[in-house]
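The authors assume throughout that readers already know how a fold can be written as discrete tokens. What matters is that the chain and its backbone geometry are given together, residue for residue. A single example would do more here than another paragraph of explanation. For illustration, here is how one protein appears when written out as sequence plus structure tokens.
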Amino acid sequence: MIKRVEGLSEALGDDHDLFMVEEALGSDKLSRQAEDYKALTRRIRSRRRKLQKEAFKIGKVIYADKPGNFRTDLDRCVSELEKVE
């Protein structure tokens, strides 16, 4: 479960970072006029779609269990982490 949560966190974080880059580029007139602006934004959007698809896939697995089972798994993971520390 820990690896899944880390994967979800990574996918969502990368998606957010790319969103912020695209927003910054879109708000800058010089960037929008650059020859490769459209190609770059297409690549950003494509990567974001893949990251979001991955995040939804992981999220479905993480949250598929009933709340009680989820809580049991979460408690087990926390106990394992406490043993490592």
Observations:
- The chain is about 90% helix and 0% strand.
- The longest helix spans residues 2-27.
- The radius of gyration is 18 Å.
- The CA atoms of residues 18 and 73 lie 32 Å apart.
